[in-house]
Amino acid sequence: MEAMQAGKNGKIGITLVCHWMVPVFEAKIDKDAAQHAIYFMFGWFMDPLTYGNYPRSMQSLAGNRLPKYSKQQSCIVKGSYDFLGLNYYTANFAGNVMSSKDVPPRYLTDFHARLSCKLKYIQIAFHSISKSLIYY
Fold first, then answer.
1. Which family does the entry's similarity section mention (predicted)?
2. Burial level of 122, CB count in 10 A (0-12/13-18/19+)?
């Protein structure tokens, strides 16, 4: 990677997809559910590249089913990109879902959120994140 960046004057980047999550209600559990859903969709890939490990909430919720980075792997992956592309298509409402012993643990249940595009017949429209982004 370093040889490609230095010798070939190359740039390494990644493009990720993320939906914005809007809490169904203003309750802390729904706000947490929305944040967990973002961590599982975006943080799963971005946090290792930025911090060298998965988001803490993801580690806690997925437990031992989430692979562990060794110190060496963490050092290799951390900061290994020059630029980031973000594909943003839509937003979802996110509401808290308590874990159930009847449901086997898996990716779609780990973040304890129910996602929906509609809330009481109100369809979520394009949620502007343009103020948070820098365009080049």
1. Belongs to the glycosyl hydrolase 1 family.
2. exposed
Strands 91-96 vs 113-116: parallel, antiparallel or unpaired: antiparallel
Return the pLDDT at 55. 94
Q: Is residue 134 part of a domain?
A: no
Closest CA to 46 of 74, 71, 14: 14
Whether residue 132 lies inside any domain: the answer is: no
How far is the C-alpha of 21 from the C-alpha of 115, rounded, in Å? 8
Q: pLDDT (tens digit, 9 = 90+) per residue, 37-61?
A: 999 899 999 999 999 999 998 898 8
Q: Cβ of 90: how many Cβ atoms within 10 Å?
A: 11
Parent domain of 7: 2-126
Q: Tokens 């960046």 correspond to what residue?
A: 5
Q: Indicate whether 135 belongs to any domain.
A: no
Using DSSP bridges, classify how beta strands 20-23 and 91-96 pair: parallel, antiparallel or unpaired: parallel
What beta strand segments (E) does the chain contain?
A: 13-17, 20-23, 83-87, 91-96, 113-116, 118-119, 122-123
